[in-house]
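thoughts on my protein:
***
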Amino acid sequence: METYIIVLLCIAAFFAGFVDAIVGGGGLIQTPVALILLPNYAVASIIGSLKIPAFSGTSFAAYQYLKKVRMNWKLLFVMAVVAFCAAFLGSNLLTLVHNDFMKPLLLVVLTLIAIYTFTKKDFGQHKIKNSTANKQLMFAVLLSICLGFYDGFIGPGTGSFLVLGFVSILGFDFLHASANAKMVNLATNFGSICLFVLKGKIIWAIAIPMALCNAFGGWVGAKLAIKKGNGFIRIFFLIVVIGTLIRFGYDVFFK
């Protein structure tokens, strides 16, 4: 593999880790770059390899959040176990079928998310207690199943969807949503990694250097998010959702 390709992938991995640490969605940066630079590799191998840097960056970001933000450990344990299993199954399906048919649906969903977040100015600014513990657990399990499977099968944008789920469904503010989402995202990435390692789909020549750069980006991004707080994270969330919307829109209408 050419050196310049690895350098470009590492640059993309840094920015992916930075964005992912704040609001998720880092896969929207490194995934298309990898697909463009590695046209001769199978899509499943590329996606599988990118799970290594994604896990690395999320780990460093999660560590920063753990030092500053209180976690709901009982809820997170259940969500992590469910998300791990769902991601494993989703990645297994990815090795068997193509996932492009999901993009038109995601385009509609992301449009609604962008409009709602932009118009509702107080969205995610305060923690809301709107359900009982049992009801919250039920919603958390459903969220973990859906997004765990999504991350294993498609991937890009999972972190953003997790943040959205924690805010809109579980009633967290943006800072606590970002922190808790990182822990669940670790579980989904690990579930996918286990499957891709068993299938022999990892390209280690790019996975390891990208992991180092993604981790550094995650460390920087998490520190900035903690320092700036909810308002900054909300704006960043909107930017990432709109970027995701443009990306999927291009794929649906122009490719």
